[in-house]
Write a structure and sequence with these properties.
Layout: H1 2-12, E1 16-21, H2 27-42, E2 45-50, H3 53-67, E3 74-76, H4 80-83, H5 91-94, H6 98-122, H7 132-138, H8 155-165, H9 173-179, H10 183-193, H11 197-207, H12 211-218, E4 224-228, H13 229-233, H14 235-245, E5 251-255, H15 261-269, E6 271-274, H16 275-287, E7 292-293, E8 297-298, H17 299-317, E9 322-324, H18 329-338, H19 342-365, H20 373-386, E10 392-397, E11 403-408, H21 412-415, E12 423-428, H22 434-441, E13 449-452, E14 461-465, H23 473-478, H24 480-496, E15 501-505, H25 508-522, E16 527-529, H26 536-548, E17 575-579, E18 597-600, H27 610-623, H28 626-643, E19 654-658, E20 674-675, H29 679-686
Parallel strand pairs: 1-12, 1-13, 2-4, 2-5, 3-4, 5-12, 14-19, 14-20, 15-17, 15-18, 16-17, 18-19
Antiparallel strand pairs: 6-11, 7-8, 9-10, 10-11
Helix pairs in contact: 1-2, 2-3, 6-9, 16-17, 17-18, 19-20, 27-28
Length: 693
């Protein structure tokens, strides 16, 4: 296959490649096959990064199939919080940041090692039963020095142990279980079963051992390690992976569903300070007896001034959603309202950091999560003062929880690390224009760009658009006939096309407006709506209920529907409502009759916010293609992702209709897209068995 050969070549040449390959082209298995052809012979490692857990499971499934022909060692890793068995029943741990969880975990591991040592001392048989591999791994978090190389601990060590015992830090029982566990038996099970991260966690739970720490011990022996994006792109976590896998120049990086990477990187490099976080800072300052900062300003007063500044900035600069702030506006206001110099503001932040550190240390000593909101506040304000202005935009955000935000416009600040890897493979079904992706994340200009066409018959998918409606702001808001036509199209198609359907909107707000203005009342079939802010459990329950609502095609229960004004629904097949770019619109599989028709209500162009205008201007300056890179291309990807839910195999057939005349600008990016002159007739014709399109 061309894709396997292309990937094999770039790995051999120590280069990167960007690939767009439709679902069904086997890009996951092809990538693994091409990479492993080289890495297994040269002793290189593979770090396979994914955006979601569902994608991670797909990689494990493909690796399992490859291993049947050529044995490979694969392990899936998720974040410490996801795998930590203690966090499952601890609400505070569930809300922890990676840093907070790591610090608490390190203390509990120390306590577990201390308890193990004291137990051995009591038995007078302390020995090196914890092998060198464990010592080497734990030395990275400062634990190796807690185990003595002598047969008995020194007097000083025993004194330190007794002090530690009084600190109130509880040892982690799961880590304690790992210290005495037969890691070779676990490894044998993993290398033969190729479990998902969830299955691995369940197995570790049954053995009474820590899944995260067990995975860390197995990673050095793995040929392929499957991880979330964070482990490849967060600097601290990437260094941890290096410590287990080897230097980056010995690792081949795979970025799956790579169209998500630029936004992920921007979010990772951005930071914000909200009113809600200031409320938590205020409560913490009061509980700490309102510490004095720089010998003249009380913490509570300092926080109150920050609240006033954000409130005034919202009133002055926010238009609709957000506003761009002039450089140094926050710092100038802070100095003015405090009546101090820039130097004194720096001293205030230093003291704020010191008090926050003391709060964290006190909580840590008591065995609690080492969290301090004052500490986080000092870090944010220090970052705000020192940020590189050419890559960042200072924003103020309105809404129910106003905030100031340091928005990173250049994802390459995070993704540039890909060039340090031995080689990298970037794949997605929706990456066009590929040069935009290459430029955005900082790959070399000579990086190969490859488009693999869909292997499925073109006649299996019909894609059309309507040219007398649009969701353009002025028309959707003020042209009532335009909105009425859109509603009529929806009711007509959902009422007369007896197919499992999904309707995607550009935003939750517009979706809710349509649902509340007639769709909910008149669509007389099972309806399932993806709501904003749904938890993962709630979302999966919604999807499962939708799939269960699809009737048996051999026993469709037709129901009589009372006559109503306008089109009505005549079957019980379900319909999903969601947004483009949401969880239904990206990454979910609906094979066969689980999804047969997609209706896209409008173009998912970003709102012309201050953030969006700044991003477009930045790309105009950097690449001379601001509109194409920040508006046209992202909208096209979202549409193609939504359409991509339809065809997942060569047996699938489906129709996608776009309710927006601006879709005519995407005839090059969306294969088969054409104007529908008589959409209802075309839909009816398509579903005839003898249809040839």
């Amino acid at each position: 296959m061309a894709i396997v050969d292309a990937i094999r070549s770039v790995v051999e040449e120590e280069r990167a490649v960007v690939i767009e390959a439709s679902t069904g082209t086997g890009k996951t298995v092809s990538a693994l096959a091409g990479i492993l052809d080289v890495t297994l012979d040269k002793g290189l490692k593979v770090l396979y990064s994914t955006r979601t857990n569902a994608q991670q499971k797909q990689v494990i499934a493909e690796a399992r199939a490859i291993s049947e022909k050529r044995p490979i060692r694969v392990i899936a890793l998720q974040g410490r919080r996801n795998l930590c068995l203690l966090a499952k029943d601890d609400m505070e741990l569930k809300s922890s940041t990676p840093e907070e969880h790591t610090l608490l975990c390190a203390d509990r591991k120390k306590a577990a090692i201390r308890e193990a040592r004291l137990a051995r001392e009591r038995e007078s048989t302390l020995s090196r039963t914890i092998d060198e591999e464990v010592l080497e791994a734990e030395s990275r978090v400062g634990l190796a020095d807690l185990l003595m190389s002598d047969d008995r601990p020194s007097k000083e060590q025993r004194r330190r142990d007794r002090i530690e015992q009084r600190r109130g830090i509880k040892p982690c029982g799961y880590f304690a279980g790992l210290l005495d566990h037969d890691i070779n038996a676990l490894a044998e099970w993993v290398w033969s079963e190729h479990p998902t991260a969830e299955r691995f966690s369940e197995e570790c739970h049954s053995r009474g051992i820590c899944a995260y720490e067990a995975a860390k011990r197995l990673i050095p022996e793995a040929d392929v390690t499957v991880v979330p994006y964070n482990f490849a792109f967060h600097p601290f976590m990437r260094r941890r992976m290096e410590s287990m896998m080897g230097t980056l120049d010995t690792i081949v990086l795979v970025v799956d569903e790579a169209h998500n990477l630029p936004d992920f990187a921007r979010d990772l490099a951005s930071a914000s300070l909200s009113m809600a976080s200031l409320d938590r800072c205020d409560a913490e300052a009061r509980s700490a007896k309102d510490p004095l900062l720089a010998e003249e300003t009380k913490a509570v007063k300092f926080i109150a001034i920050l609240r006033e500044i954000i409130t005034d900035l919202v009133e002055e600069y926010v238009y609709e959603d957000d506003g761009a702030l002039p450089p140094y506006e926050v710092g100038t206001e802070l100095m003015s309202r405090l009546g101090v110099t820039s130097l004194r503001v720096g001293e205030i932040l230093t003291d704020l950091h010191r008090h926050g550190s003391a709060i964290r240390d006190a909580k840590r000593a008591a065995g609690r999560l080492p969290r301090s909101y004052l500490f986080n506040l000092s870090n944010f304000l220090t970052f705000w003062r020192e940020m590189m202005e050419e890559d960042y935009m200072q924003l103020v955000i309105g809404g129910p929880n106003p905030a100031i935000e340091a928005f990173c416009m250049d994802p390459a600040r995070v993704t540039g690390a890909v060039n340090a890897f031995h080689s990298s493979v970037h794949m997605s079904g929706t990456l066009r224009p590929l040069d935009e992706y290459r430029d955005s994340i900082g790959l070399p200009d000579e990086t190969p760009l490859l488009i693999v066409p869909s292997p499925f018959p073109a006649k299996n998918l019909k894609v059309g658009y309507i040219n007398d409606v649009t969701t353009r702001y002025e028309e959707i808001r003020f042209d009532h006939d335009n909105r009425a036509r859109m509603m009529n199209y929806l009711l007509t198609w959902l009422g007369n096309v007896d197919r499992s359907s999904a309707v995607f909107f550009p935003s939750y707000r517009l979706m809710n407006e349509f649902l509340d203005s007639g769709l909910t009342a008149r669509v007389k079939r099972p309806m399932f709506v993806e709501r904003q802010g749904m938890s993962q459990a709630e979302f999966m329950t919604l999807v499962n209920k939708y799939k269960k609502a699809i009737p048996d095609p051999d026993a469709v229960d037709k129901v009589a529907v009372p006559e109503t004004e306008g089109p009505t629904i005549s079957t019980k097949k379900p319909v999903l409502f969601g947004v483009m770019g949401g969880r239904i619109g990206e990454g979910m599989d609906f094979p066969g009759e689980q999804l047969e028709m997609v209706v896209i209500v409008g173009m998912p162009f970003p709102k012309p916010t201050a953030r969006q205008r700044a991003l477009q201007h930045y790309y105009d300056i950097k690449f001379g293609r601001g509109f194409e890179y920040t508006i046209h291309a992202p909208a096209g990807r979202k549409i193609r992702q939504a359409i991509g839910r339809l065809i997942r195999s060569e047996e699938d057939r489906g129709v996608a209709m776009i309710l927006d005349k601006r879709a005519n600008h995407y005839t090059k990016e969306i294969p088969g897209l054409r104007l529908s002159a008589d959409p209802m007739a075309e839909l009816t014709t398509f579903w005839k068995k003898d249809s040839t399109l």
